[in-house]
Design a protein that fits this description.
The complex is a heterodimer of chains A (355) and B (741). With 355 residues, chain A is α/β, with parallel strands linked by helices. Chain A contains seven helices and eleven strands. Chain A folds into two domains: 180 residues, Pyruvate-ferredoxin oxidoreductase, PFOR, domain III (Pyruvate-ferredoxin Oxidoreductase, domain 3), CATH 3.40.920; 92 residues, Alpha-Beta Plaits. In chain B, strand 10, helix 9 and strand 11 form a beta-alpha-beta unit. Classes of the chains: A alpha/beta (355), B alpha/beta (741).
Chain lengths: 355, 741
């Protein structure tokens, strides 16, 4: 049985993975648990934040280890992780994602940002996107490699065996990519110097949540705050690309609006070629999830798919129509994200889906 | 030491229930997907695809039918399995006393979840407590290991006393948490332990004809129920023996109730399910401080282990009973009421305190367990309370949007005129209908590229004026109304999966009634019911009833071809051959085994004034049909619209391609665009006319869920799908040519 490097008062070593639906953190957590339980001789538990699975929404995955003969008595989420993995660097600014970091926490962040820093015991970064493009592997495999390296107690060979056993049988075609990703994650991880002080992280996505209690909530769960999802900023759902608007090419046909699931486009009355029409004014990117449906249907290439990193500021970013709230503290996440089902999610999706 | 070989696996409670079922190799499982129990059927389907068992898995169209399938199978004298949760259990509830009253054993797993409404998919015990009076045996497992072990023991207990049995466990906390567990290494050892089952009666032995389900008067019914009572009582001894025998084989011993540090404890916490383990940790911490605490849990709810509870609690001064459910107005949840009754009956009188906790999946941290025990330590005088309870803040909440006025919603860009018995829509162009304000606000949580908001928006672009929307449960509902937010700018109502059309009927009739009495002004509201995610399976009865009564409302189905809100299990409208979590691909399966449901034709058979299919790939046609739908719903009766609705996540295709995938469905005639106006069918688009018709495989190969059908070994399946698609389309053409069809 492997010796765990650090334990909490109850004798548990705890990990938390913070991710976005679609990156495969659930599977990563499950593999970590399985490695502990089946290969390292530990008692182990693994579970995810619960609910219905949606791509692009936040997902948390939890792993608890202890010695084989000790009972795992706690079922609740990991509050103070010994190891915290952030699958997206946006999460550094999310108070719920970085909650519970202390002087014992090892943090791993998927980022290309060389200057990123935060307070913790040990800090590691890994550029998963770059490795994913090179190895054609998936983020979760690269993160798995990085996590086991940073953990200091999980040998690479053990993880390779587990990937071979669990994924190799089911998806032999992508086994090589998965293993490459795992190894690259293990070897390409970079240690950084953490910030010295236990400073509180800036929570840039200030959440001014409506908070109703039993004395204030309308009875029966009735909600009169019409359109209040407009307080959500769903930018994190985009996976690198966004639709760029070229008004000079736009013929104001409105097809983009018929295909946009997220009510991103704003049309107002105006004139085009001497006729009164509804004219496209721009997009409210707070709500754009980057599906690029609009780019595909636009008949005049007035919308193009661009790499988000290349645009510090998005042109033609316009507030959604009819919004009367003057200032909105946009909530930097989607609706609650979670997992109800694993059998199918574990399958490799053929095109642009999940693993 | 275990005397029969065991092995470790790392699985969740649901997976372990499925693992046990596979080892038992039941004859039949009748089921209907509902979170958080769905994985049981999913896992069994996956194992079936790999040829690991012979259980016949039957996807019902609702839990009531699933229970019916199980009942029917059980009267055949074989071994039968089911799994459900929450409102699924309640929907099946009516069948439960039938099963027990006629004394046919089945095994059902209940991954406990809070009962709606408001809808919440997470765990508490409000569902399982409804089953207390059904005459079923009920075991409660507090960990994934117990889920497995109780599944193996349950069937043996149930068969010995001829009663059905439930294995209950915490939804998510136990159903979804993966743990290292011990299982029988060899399936034969499980089968040897449970033995052969010889049913005393079977409906499948023609040489021994019997009547099952007599009509019974008094005093016979009294006798029947007394027999049930005797069987229930007999099960106590049987369970003890079965647990003992199981312990000898596995070294894992169980009893109807167990305690931790209870012998000398002054304060005991009685708590059910996964929270018991957290309570044990809290006990240790208090013991370290010299406080004499203990914890007690129950593994059997029916029969209720009164003697065991009294024995465990007899030395305590204070017993805190934690209920994850309330019997509102009774002064406690059912656990409290029954524990108190047991103590009182035995003349054991500790002080009792009840706390309602953890409803709707509220996490139970160590601190919470300490607080509950703390109620006993502090000797509180509140015998009953909720913990925690939050009073809330009085914060001024400013609105995000003004309500949409009728005038604003009626820019006059659409008109519908009658022309030779048919209606024609004028205007309603894609550009001009942009003047109608969106009834949905952005910021909802649907997946990138989801078709549901696309279809709802297209529908509403053909409808001017006031609208009231009703959504049946499904992704469309879950992603738009995450409390305390809502994406709707117009009035919206939710009701459960099977009852939307009926609910909206009631609302429409109330509107008319109030108008007739002068309590509401003259005017018009267009009432629209939106359903998808298989809602037209379980909700078919309600929709047909509404249609036959001719209620003035629109039913729009967004047909995404599966139960996507629960993680994509097959629905009846899933294409044949499609992979899903309950129709896996494997050596023994090619995906879903039967054809997709032809819902428009079923609705048309109710002779409603307007039925139409719509597709986002033909947005102009879509908007015009929406306008017609409004006119028909206002003036003639019920309207049914069906939109094929993309689900990139589960169709396994790229979000940006969805409109082309839908177009391919139309061009392959998998999803023909047509309308039936007062009985007369018209094809709105025939791909054959413009040489655009494509073979069905060209549509199916665009989606990851059906792409495998391209493989030569599924050629026969594809041929069958092509044949059925052609047959349905030819029939449509014939209908379009003949006004009588």
């Amino acid at each position: 049985m492997v010796k765990l490097p650090i334990l909490n008062d109850m004798g548990y070593y705890e990990m938390r993975l913070e991710s976005i639906g679609g990156f495969g953190a659930n599977l990563c957590g499950k593999l970590l648990g399985e490695i502990g339980a089946m290969s390292l001789g530990l008692n182990a538990a693994a579970f995810s934040s619960y609910g219905s699975e949606k791509r692009g929404s936040p997902v948390k995955s939890f792993i608890r280890f202890c010695e084989a003969d000790r009972e795992l008595r706690i079922n609740s989420p990991v509050e103070e992780p010994h190891l915290l993995a952030l699958f997206h660097d946006r999460m550094v600014h999310n108070s719920s994602a970085v909650k519970g970091i202390n002087e014992n926490t090892t943090v791993i962040i998927n980022t290309a940002d060389k200057d990123i820093s935060l307070y913790c015991k040990r800090l590691f970064t890994i550029d998963c996107e770059k490795i994913a493009m090179e190895t054609k592997s998936r983020i979760n495999m690269i993160m798995l490699g990085a996590i086991i390296k940073a953990s200091g107690f999980i040998p690479l060979a053990t993880a390779e065996d587990m990937v071979l056993k669990t994924l190799g049988k089911k998806y032999p075609d992508v086994l090589k990519q998965n293993l490459d990703g795992l190894r690259e994650g293990f070897s390409k991880i970079v240690e950084k110097i953490p910030s010295e002080n236990g400073q509180k992280l800036e929570d840039t996505g200030k959440v001014k949540r409506v908070f109703w209690g039993y004395k204030t909530a309308p009875a029966g769960g009735v909600n009169y705050l019409i359109g209040s999802t407009a307080a959500n900023d769903l930018s994190a759902s985009r996976e690198g690309y966004f639709p760029l608007f070229h008004p000079e090419k736009c013929i104001h046909c409105g097809l983009c609006d018929t295909t946009c699931p997220d009510m991103v486009f704003r049309f107002e009355e105006g004139e085009y070629k001497g006729r009164k029409v509804m004219k496209n004014q721009g997009l409210d990117y707070h709500y754009c999830k980057g599906c690029l449906r609009c780019v595909k249907v636009c008949p005049t290439a007035a919308l193009t798919a661009e790499i988000e990193r290349d645009f510090k500021k998005k042109p033609h970013f316009i507030r959604t129509k009819g919004l009367i709230a003057e200032e909105i503290d946009y909530k930097a996440e989607g609706s609650s994200g979670y997992v109800t089902s694993e059998a199918y999610l574990d399958e490799q999706r053929v095109d642009g889906g999940l693993l | 030491m275990a005397t029969v070989k065991q092995t470790y696996i790392f699985e969740s409670g649901n997976e372990l229930a499925a693992h046990a079922a596979k080892q038992i190799n039941y004859h039949i499982m009748g089921y209907y997907p509902i979170t958080p129990s769905t994985q049981v059927a999913e896992m069994l389907d996956s194992l079936k695809a790999q040829g690991k068992h012979q259980i016949d898995l039957i996807p019902a169209e609702g839990e009531h039918s699933a229970a019916g399938i199980c009942y029917g199978a059980s009267v055949g004298g074989g071994r039968v399995f089911n799994a459900t949760s929450a409102n699924g259990l309640l929907y099946a509830l009516e069948q439960l006393p039938v099963q027990s009253g006629t004394r046919f054993p089945v095994v059902m797993n209940v991954a406990c979840r809070t009962v709606s409404g408001p809808l919440d998919i997470k765990g508490d015990h409000s569902d399982i407590m409804y089953a207390l009076n059904t005459g079923w045996l009920i075991l409660f497992a507090s960990s994934p290991q117990e889920v497995y072990d109780f599944n193996i023991c349950a069937i043996k207990i149930a068969e010995a006393v001829h009663l059905p049995i439930i294995i209950a466990y915490d939804g998510f906390f136990t159903s979804h948490q993966k743990r290292r567990c011990e299982v029988f290494k060899n399936d034969e050892d499980v089968r040897n332990f449970i033995g052969e089952y010889t049913a005393p009666f079977s409906a499948l032995e023609p040489d021994k004809p019997i009547t099952i389900g007599s009509y019974m008067n008094e005093p016979d019914l009294m006798i029947n129920k007394y027999q049930l009572h005797i069987a229930m009582e007999k099960s106590r001894k049987v369970a003890r023996e079965v647990f003992e025998e199981f312990g000898e084989l596995t070294d894992r011993y169980y009893s109807a109730a167990e305690g931790y540090m209870h012998e000398d404890a002054d304060i005991l916490l009685v708590i059910l399910g996964s929270a018991y383990h957290t309570a044990k940790q809290a006990v240790d911490e208090y013991r370290n401080q010299g406080k004499k605490c203990g914890a007690v849990t129950l593994h059997s709810l029916r029969p209720f282990p009164s003697k065991e509870i009294v024995e465990l609690c007899k030395n305590a001064k204070t017993v805190v009973i934690a209920d994850r459910q309330d019997s509102y107005g009774a002064g406690g949840g059912n656990l409290s009421l029954e524990v108190k009754a047991a103590l009182l009956t035995a003349g054991v009188m500790p002080k009792t305190i009840t706390r309602i906790y953890g409803l709707g999946g509220q996490d139970f941290f160590l601190e919470d367990a300490k607080t509950l025990l703390g109620c006993g330590i502090e000797d509180t005088t509140d015998h009953f309370d909720y913990y925690p309870k939050v009073a809330g803040e009085k914060n001024e909440i400013r609105p995000f949007f003004e309500p949409i006025s009728e005038q604003e919603a009626s820019p006059g860009v659409i008109s519908v005129e009658e022309d030779e018995g048919k209606f024609k829509v004028k205007g309603a162009t894609i550009n001009q209908t942009l003047k109608i304000p969106k009834r949905l606000a952005p910021g909802h949580g649907a997946c990138p590229g989801c078709g549901i908001p696309v279809n709802v928006n297209l529908l509403l672009r053909g409808i001017e004026g006031n609208v009231v929307l009703l959504f049946q449960t499904g992704c469309g509902m879950v992603v738009t109304t995450p409390y305390p937010q809502t994406a709707f700018k117009v009035t919206y109502v939710h009701n459960l999966f099977q009852n939307g059309a009926a609910t909206l009927s009631g609302l429409v009739r109330m509107y008319r009634s109030k108008q007739q009495r002068g309590e509401l002004p003259e005017g018009e509201i267009t009432f629209i019911m939106i359903s998808g995610d298989g809602g037209m399976d379980i909700g078919m009865g309600s929709a047909l009833g509404t249609a036959i009564r001719g209620e003035n409302l629109i039913i729009m189905e967004y047909d995404n071809g599966g139960y996507m809100n629960t993680g994509y299990q097959l629905s009846y409208s899933t294409p044949k051959g499609a992979k899903s979590a309950t129709s896996h691909l494997g050596e023994n399966q090619y995906g879903k085994s039967f054809f997709h449901k032809d819902t428009p034709q079923i609705m048309a058979a109710a002779n409603i004034p307007y039925v139409a299919t719509v597709a986002e790939s033909n947005p102009q046609d879509f908007i015009r049909k929406a306008a017609k739908a409004q006119m028909y719903a206002r003036n003639y009766g019920t309207v049914y619209l069906k939109a094929l609705s993309a689900c990139p996540l589960n169709w396994a295709d790229k979000p940006q391609n969805e409109r082309s995938v839908i177009a391919a469905a139309v061009d392959s005639c998998y999803f023909p665009l047509y309308e039936i106006e007062r009985g007369k069918t018209a094809l709105n688009y025939n791909p054959e006319d413009s040489n655009k018709k494509i073979p069905i495989i060209d549509f199916l190969s665009l989606m990851g869920r059906t792409k495998h059908l391209k493989n030569e070994k599924y050629a026969d399946v594809v041929r069958e799908i092509q044949k059925e698609t052609d047959r349905r389309f030819k029939r449509l053409k014939a209908m379009a040519e003949n006004p009588l069809l």
